[in-house]
Amino acid sequence: MKLIDFDEIFNRAMERELLAHAGERTEEEWESAIASAYASFGKTVLRELGKTPVQYFAEMSDGQLVETLKEYILQGVPVPDFLSEELASRGAVPEVLALLRETDEELVLYALNAIGADRRALPRYAEMLAEEGYDEHVKDHLAELLKERADEAVEPMLALAGTENAPYALEVLSAVKARDERVYGALLSAFRGAGEEERPLYAGYLAACGDERALPALLAEIEREDIGFVAFQELKYAIEALGGEYEKERDFSSDAEYKKIMAATAGADIFGGQGKKSKN
């Protein structure tokens, strides 16, 4: 398939414009002008097409549009925004949903952006989280989309909560709005069983869940003498988010992460504290 490099056509035209008027606008003004010009370019009839770039993709069938996307990626030609926007306008049609069976990361990400949180894709999204063929970039995106319909994804996420993909499943479960003892139980169990590095993350999931029954577990964890500064702050946030308080003064002057933060912020930590001790 012979592809049209719309971005190259546009870039050549803008290069002439930039050379002719280089000093007439600031960098920010040029960025705005280029974005506006690209939108106008999409509505401009091109001699070689006899139609606008927007029309060119809008006139394709769902199958043609998907195959054209594949060819752009396969041939290494930049995918035009006009194609991406048209794909998004089609949503969860069968041809786009079929892309969720692909393993090429770039192709799958285009499909996810086009489909969004459409409930017709939820069963496949849950399957993809459990499959080894997708890396963290894809799975992070899947989790974000599933969180938008977390209440509809409870069952498959609970099934994943005991697997190696538990972090993604628990992230989704933390967004569930309906009261569900199984969801609370899974989040609390994950927090209690987590290692040092993961525990602050799971504390955040408990905070997002909004169940104040988690406060005793969080308060017990924050009292640990060997807790690090960053973990302390994450736990403190979770406690406060659930309506609790932790007022005990703690000294983190020997904590490596605390020292890095203080050095980087000239004595004012990123959480708003000052000096050697963390209060409030």
Describe what you observe in this structure.
The protein is an all-alpha fold and 280 residues long. The chain has helices at residues 6-20, 27-42, 53-58, 62-75, 81-90, 94-97, 105-115, 122-130, 136-147, 154-160, 166-173, 181-193, 199-209, 215-222, 229-241, 256-264, and strands at residues 250-251, 277-278. A two-stranded antiparallel sheet has the order 1-2. The protein is globular.
Question: Which structural traits does this protein have?
Answer:
2 strands; mainly alpha; 280 residues; 16 helices; two-stranded antiparallel ribbon
Q: Unreliable runs, pLDDT <50, ≥5 residues?
A: 269-280
Overall geometry comes to globular
End-to-end separation:
64 Å
Based on DSSP secondary structure assignment, what is the total number of beta strands?
2
**Strand order of the main beta sheet, please?**
1-2
Strand content bin: under 5%
Oligomeric description of these chains? single chain
Helix content: 55-70%
Biggest beta-sheet profile: 2 strands, antiparallel
Category by helix and strand content: mainly alpha
List the helices and strands and how they pair.
Elements: H1 6-20, H2 27-42, H3 53-58, H4 62-75, H5 81-90, H6 94-97, H7 105-115, H8 122-130, H9 136-147, H10 154-160, H11 166-173, H12 181-193, H13 199-209, H14 215-222, H15 229-241, E1 250-251, H16 256-264, E2 277-278
Antiparallel strand pairs: 1-2
